[in-house]
Amino acid sequence: MRSTGEINRRRRHEMAWVIDIRTVLLVGAVLTALFAGMLLVVSRAQPIQSQSSIRWWVVGALAYAAGFALTGFRGLIWIGWSAVLANLFLASGFAAFTLALRRFFGLAERPRQLLALVACGLVASLWWAFAQYNEEWRHAATSLVFASLIWLALRTLYRGGNRLTMAQHLTAGYLVLGLVMMLVRVVALLGFGVKVPSIFEVTAIQVTVYGFGALLPVMATFGFLLMCHERGQSELREVARVDYLTGIYNRRAIEELAHRLLTMAQRKTMPLSVMIADLDHFKRINTELGHLQGDRALVETVQAIRRCLRNSDLMGRLGGEEFVVVMPGDNLIEAAVAAERVRAAIAALSLTFDGKPWPLTVSVGVATLMPDDQGFFDLLRRADDALYSAKHSGRNRVSAEGHRPRKTAPVVG
Question: Cα(97)–Cα(65) distance, rounded to whole angstroms?
């Protein structure tokens, strides 16, 4: 009869997991290809500027899947396919991932750098597969190439934007693990003399490298998809804050930003002023020239005002032909001088319709922050009162609160 100890050992042996690396490789290839297809499908819902980078990521995932699939057939097909071509596909996949990230962030693509690393991997595979066969050196050399390509992808992620998002950190985390695995493999093969009689031999380093290697592109693709989603949501929020015609802040956005600047100015006892510019006789432009010319007048007015402002000034459209400029750091006199520059710049413009010039002018009201102001609307109301005064004094004028509108030469037309 068998002893209890022998029975327990037999049961533990029967319950032990049997890991087949060939199966891991092929399953990883299938999962990567499926995620690439999923990314391609959802790419249509992503912003246009992200679609080029998504296509390159899909190319990288498919190349990676092809490399893993060919590796999974090692021993069943020629080594030129299962080792050399497989490693070429894997290196190309990592290069495509890096290129996708560079396009995503609008950085210089530097394809020669990526092609050079892919070529190094190909030469190493050919040399240690045919010229001087050495399985350990071939694995170490290609792992070093993969690590270099992953490092370039990581550098791109952390240089791509001023504000790193959670999705970027998540994607980078997967790539960091992949980089560590590649470097550990190089050290194990060259530093500790670990032998690789067969890539399908179940050892700790083999299971770790190929097991994680099967999941790396899947997890990284998921992270990249989250990055695209974050960008799409950010652009939707930006669209909700921008006037569709003129490209400046809409009323809701400019009021929100102005409230923040006003609170900061009150806390630091700094000056802050506002000007409201209203295009004169705009209804007449729409009636006599048409709405397309009216839109053109608004766009040219905004462009002219922008050229007169500083980078710190904020501009928004209150509605119709009325625009507001928030000028942090300007007192009433400085704001009035800026408003006069705006008025003169608009007066120098004219629409050309059927070969005839059509002059443009604006009336401008200016107000500055007072100690008893309860919010931005108090300041805006006083600037609007000054604008009303400029309108009723003959238009094409600048009116500052508490001052008479400044007269200008009459505009004919």
Answer: 13
Query: What stretch of H or E contains 213?
Result: helix 204-239
One domain for residues 220 and 85? yes
State the CATH number of the domain containing residue 274. Answer: 3.30.70.270
Measured in whole angstroms, how far is the alpha carbon of residue 245 from the centre of its chain? 23
In DSSP notation, 108-169 reads ---HHHHHHHHHHHHHHHHIIIIIS--HHHHHHHHHHHHHHHHHHHHHHHHHS-SS--HHHH
Across 116-123, average pLDDT: 96
Give the residue-averaged pLDDT of 305-326.
94
Taking the C-alpha atoms of residue 278 and residue 397, their distance in angstroms, rounded to an integer, is 10
**What are the strands of the beta sheet with 322-328, ordered from one edge?**
314-319, 322-328, 272-279, 362-368, 398-400
Question: pTM, whole model, 2 decimals?
Answer: 0.71
412 within a domain of the structure (yes/no): no
CA distances from 81 to 27, 120, 125, 164, 206 (A): 19, 17, 11, 40, 20
The pLDDT score that the predictor gives to residue 411 is 39
How does strand 398-400 pair with strand 322-328? Answer: unpaired
Tokens 């750098």 -> residue = 113
Interacting residues of 11 by C-beta distance below 8 A, sequence separation 6+ = none
Read off φ and ψ for residue 74, nearest 5 degrees.
Answer: -55, 135
Side-chain-side CA neighbours of 342 within 13 Å: the count stands at 31
Nearest to 275 by CA among 373, 178, 201, 386: 386
Q: Per residue in 34-87, pLDDT tens?
A: 999 999 888 887 777 788 999 999 999 999 999 999 999 998 999 999 999 999
Question: Could you give the dihedral angle defined by the CA atoms of residues 284, 286, 287 and 293, in that order, rounded to the nearest 10 degrees?
Answer: 110
Measured N-to-C along each axis, helices 86-105 and 48-72 cross at an angle, to the nearest 10 degrees, of 170
Token pair recorded at residue 92: 């190309």
User: Phi and psi at residue 399, in whole multiples of 5°?
Assistant: -125, 125
Q: Could you tell me if residue 134 is inside a domain?
A: yes
pLDDT band at 322; cut points 50, 70, 90: very high
For residue 110, give every residue at least 6 positions away whose Cβ sits within 8 Å of its Cβ, in sequence order, or none: 102
Q: Are residues 270 and 323 in the same domain?
A: yes
In the numeric block, the tokens 């690439």 are attached to 36
The range of the structural domain enclosing residue 223 comes to: 11-239
Asked if residue 190 and residue 42 are part of one domain, the reply reads yes
> Is 4 part of a structural domain of the chain?
no
